[in-house]
Amino acid sequence: MTVTPQAQCTRPPWSLARTWLLQPGLPGFTAAVDTAVDVVVLDIEDGLPDAQKPAGRRAVADWLHDGGSAWVRINSASTAAWTADLDALSGAPGLAGVMLAKTESADDVAATAERLPAGTPIVALVESALGVESALDIARSCARIAFGIGDFRRDTGMSADPAVLAYPRARLVIASRAAGLPAPIDGPTLRDQARHLARETEVAKAAGMTGRLCLDASHAETINTLLSPSTLEIDEARRTLARLDAPTGPYDGSAGPTRARAEAVLDLAAKLGVL
């Protein structure tokens, strides 16, 4: 199996990653994906039918042992497949990190971490009412949180209306901030709903999320662009700092937060290489 070195692609660290491509871990897969994707996640959970999970698990583990490197989405800690996934992956040198499906407690994350090499980052995928209600405890135990919108809607009966989903998004954003984590990763736009990609990405950004799950590599360019500071945002941040550095009017309590927001825009732009 041919390995395409990740070093050929300039990607931000996972803490700043905007696009997380869920690529089914079918036998014969390759990690040679669109270079616009920030993180490749080989999916051996919902990306595979149950009958194909054993073969997919073996193919992913073999590839990670043979020089490949990627994140892997594994099955929920409440399933037997979780044990099989970790048995296969825990010793793989190419395992960059784990996305834990259907996380509902800090115990789920802790149990997973115990089976992995020390320091392996774990993104907790929150996909249920219980997971959202446990958001702060989960955030304190993991490296980053992702929002599994499809399963969350199935669990709760909520619609996809952004106003309806504002509450769970806010819970994850606030919990992440309170725990000192990077901002959360929002759910994906379905392949047949690409016409909504830009709007749904703007919703995620407005909610305070800085990444999105991705089901199609062709969506990455739009997501990366919209989740990066734009030229207008960068120019406005610079003008804001210049105005605050040479005030012509009264100084009030809004100056500090305004300066911090402008500095954050420029800092993120620099880290993402779009300054």
Automatic annotation (TrEMBL):
It is an enzyme of class 4 (lyase). GO terms for molecular function: citryl-CoA lyase activity; magnesium ion binding. One of its GO terms (biological process) is oxaloacetate metabolic process. Mg(2+) binds at residues 127, 151. The keyword Metal-binding applies. Its EC number is 4.1.3.34. Residues 35-216 form the HpcH/HpaI aldolase/citrate lyase domain. The keyword Lyase applies. Its cofactor is Mg(2+). Substrate binds at residues 73, 127. Pfam families: HpcH_HpaI. PANTHER family: CITRATE LYASE SUBUNIT BETA, LYASE BETA SUBUNIT, PUTATIVE (AFU_ORTHOLOGUE AFUA_4G13030)-RELATED. This is Citrate lyase subunit beta/citryl-CoA lyase. It comes from Mycolicibacterium iranicum (Mycobacterium iranicum).
